[in-house]
């Protein structure tokens, strides 16, 4: 039986409307037309969306407030994210002045209108060139065009009098384009603004207000060398290639397992992040759920299965645009393999990273002593990883394992809030037992234990010096490394 090969899913591109009804409708029409003409393999699915948005009469005024516009754009991007759109066209030059602000908070790529215009002009004109810009006073003040063009060409703008009396009036005036007047006085005023630019030596006129593109043909008919930026932007969607967007990297944390260990992990991420200011730190989102069933109770007894609760926490982090997940709980890693294949983002395996750290930093050692919950030991998650390495593993006997469990879960244990010398002394008994039985490196394999003893690569116990390692610390350092721009660039 012959099986027909399914055609690949077409690229889905959304158009954000509402920021200028005429301009966004014009762009939507042009991208739809371009998509219809494209070869089948280059077809795109075009979606349109807008919400109620009350624009001020002079949104392009030099000192206009853009807060409402910013929040509107963010909400629309979130809506398109929910519709599983691959990319979005944002037909608004004012909004492109704060493009980086919204893109940093959204995983959905915004196709860069200015970059598309720049690429088109690079094909049209030899360098050096002089470009005339018709844009709002607000965009002009924000130097949006200088950001993209000033390095290799000269930009000219209408004189102040022409900017106010002709350009702004033609677009925002009572009989302006935004109010539906696409001929008559508005065209005459724009023609005067274009002539001012030509008198300054402009070789080509670039509309920097989306509404102007709706009448570019009328201006071209009067001999103005003007381009249609809406058409250029629309056609750029057909060649869009999804890639890394400017959104800030975000670490998702499954918290509450246990609560104090979650805080400890976050503090270690912050401590290990090279930062000179608040903005240099890494974004974190924490799904703090102390109601996740006890992992040890499930693994060694008949306790409730925490798999669904852990998976649900991970899915919420995934839906909140986390780039990876950290679970600061050793025992919870017994359930990671069950859920990882159902997630689109990786869980950074604390246990694997710990053994890797030992291989890199303490490769001369031979035996790892493991202090962990009875559930972690029974699950053999550390055993399986260590068995694939050159190391062997030693765990406490029943007597000392009971001490470890009491230090963690006991009436005066860490989970009950007791972090004191008495608990610390009892934990050292278990460490001494492991060292006496051949351990030359100790892993604090429960995230509560490092609250008693910090990582120490030269820990003295029972007359010997052994490294005592904290998987939470190792996980935090690894997450910071993975979140670095260098690591993301090479990904």
Please write out the topology.
Blueprint: E1 11-16, H1 21-37, E2 44-49, H2 67-82, E3 87-89, H3 93-96, H4 99-103, E4 110-111, H5 113-124, E5 130-135, H6 137-141, H7 144-149, E6 154-156, H8 160-172, H9 185-199, E7 204-208, H10 210-213, H11 216-220, H12 229-236, E8 250-255, H13 259-272, E9 283-288, H14 295-300, H15 307-319, E10 324-326, H16 336-339, E11 347-348, H17 350-361, E12 367-371, H18 374-379, H19 381-387, E13 392-394, H20 398-409, H21 421-436, E14 441-444, E15 456-461, E16 464-469, H22 471-483, H23 485-490
Parallel strand pairs: 1-2, 1-3, 3-4, 5-6, 5-7, 8-9, 8-10, 10-11, 12-13, 12-14, 14-16
Antiparallel strand pairs: 15-16
Helix pairs in contact: 1-12, 5-12, 8-9, 13-22, 17-22, 20-21
Key traits:
491 residues, alpha/beta, five-stranded mixed sheet, four-stranded parallel sheet, 16 strands, elongated
Task: Write up this protein.
By secondary structure, this protein is α/β, with parallel strands linked by helices. The chain contains 23 helices and 16 strands. The strands form four sheets. Strands 13-12-14-16-15 form a five-stranded mixed beta sheet, sandwiched between helices. The longest helix has 17 residues, at 21-37. 41% of the residues are buried.
